[in-house]
Design goal:
Layout: E1 3-7, H1 13-25, E2 28-31, H2 43-52, E3 71-79, E4 82-83, H3 85-93, E5 100-106, H4 112-125, E6 129-136, H5 144-166
Parallel strand pairs: 1-2, 1-3, 3-5, 5-6
Antiparallel strand pairs: 3-4
Helix pairs in contact: 1-5
This protein binds flavin mononucleotide.
């Protein structure tokens, strides 16, 4: 089974989780990147505002084809209890029909469940299939090693039980 782990990350936590998962699964790892860098004193507010409105940001063209994969892990940070605008953009641009997804999100404290349900709806609206999802809880105040441990644990659990659901 060919697996892709694709993610967006602003501050690096979702990247850390995604790369830990991909290592355990032996999956390809790809990052969704925005064209404009988010910086400056109002960047946090504008990011949250844009996410709250369900907007798509401008993302760089991706150098991979989802068609090449049997299963896609898609990860987003939680912004204002929603997916990041770059992930909205990815979903709106990519061909998802018939593709199988496992969803994950990283969050400071709360909003992961709602975020995952929004991503699921968007994927299903484009005829993709969500076969499983999980939330990597609380990156706020959590040490790097602990985040890696959680991500690896989830990926190992997926290998043990989850693949069954995926067929
Ligand atoms: C604009 C913005 C909005 C956020 N909103 C939430 C939120 O609603 N709930 C939450 O628990 N964490 C929230 N966070 C925290 C992030 O979800 C968390 O730090 C995440 O792990 C960051 O991922 P990253 O390092 O890959 O960017 C927010 C962060 C940003 C930048």
């Amino acid at each position: 089974m060919k697996i892709l782990v694709v993610f967006y990350s602003w501050k690096g936590k979702t990247r850390l989780v995604a790369s830990s998962i991909s290592k355990v699964l032996g999956a390809d790892l790809k990052e969704i990147k925005e064209i404009e860098e988010r910086r400056g004193p109002f960047s946090f507010l504008s990011a949250g505002y844009s996410a709250a409105r369900g907007e798509c940001s401008k993302i760089k063209p991706f150098d991979f084809k989802l068609e090449a994969y049997d299963l896609i892990f898609l990860g987003t940070p939680v912004w204002a209890m929603r997916p990041a605008p770059a992930v909205n953009a990815f979903i709106s641009k990519a061909k998802l029909k018939g593709k199988k997804f496992v969803l994950f999100a990283t969050m400071g404290i709360f909003g992961g469940k709602k975020t995952i349900s929004i991503v699921k709806e968007m994927i299903e609206a484009k005829q993709g299939r969500v076969v499983s999802s999980f939330i990597v809880i609380k990156t706020g105040g959590v040490k790097r090693e602990e985040m890696i441990r959680r991500a690896e644990e989830i990926a190992k659990k997926f290998i043990k039980q989850g693949r069954k659901e995926v067929r």
